Sequence to fold (311 residues):
Amino acid sequence: MSNTSGIIVKPSPAASSSHRVCSVFVDCCPSGVGGARADLNGRVGTTAVEAEDRRESGTAALKRCSTQNLSRLRVQSRSMIGPSEQIHSQRKLIIAIDGPAGAGKSTIASRLARKLGYVNLESGAMYRALALKAIAQDASFDDEATLLKLAQSSRIQLEPTLGGNRTLLDGKDVSARIRERDVTEAASRVSVHPAVREWMVARQKEMGAGGGVVMEGRDIGTKVFPDADVKIFLDADPVVREQRRMEQQKIMGDVAASVAADLRERDHRDRTRAASPLQAAEDAVVIDSTNLGEDEVLARVEKLVTEKLNQ
Fold:
């Protein structure tokens, strides 16, 4: 099969040796084990096989994979569970975490995915990668048609690591670059276009259709997965979110004031855009993290997940 452009997502690393992921995911044109691939043109070219025997080698699994073609993207994982663990491997949930910039959703989503052995899908990284490509090609952020074509011709890889998602654009690691101010601002402008969002939403639905995913963004619970098993809207006081962003980027003075202004402008743009505005789903659990530490927020989210798994 020819190497077409696409979005590739790799399973999240397990939280510990007792949560060893045993599923093998390979590209239809595989370069190795560990990826689930969705073609950017809407075709899904993914093969997957669960390693029933945890001692089976990846090489043997790949040989079996070559004979299987799935009609839709599946994201699955199986964990080896110790006697003291309370993780339910039989049922794979779709977990949606939405919220504004600086609320902490990326950190919580990443940690939760690692703990559950799920795939962490950071929708914002996809928009950022597209924005970076628009910058590189000097494309107008207001030209919806051109931006859509750029998306359709891009190859975006999301590789969860212990430190968070690693993002590759057309084979190049852009993890750090897409967090810089110009890309952040561009991503907010790129994401307002209905055609771009429609295309992104379709890809995100394909990527998470099989469950076993923690997807974070701004419209996951309202647009991408309105029937998600667990929906969380993570929010915080705007001033607190601004302070967190400044600490995260290690900035102060005039630069910090400018970043705070950018964040407020982004909030306004996200909440007022015509296509999929930022808002909590009616059935989402809203968590205000203003006075909560990271561990406290994670504990509340884990409780919601456990309750759903026990139903």
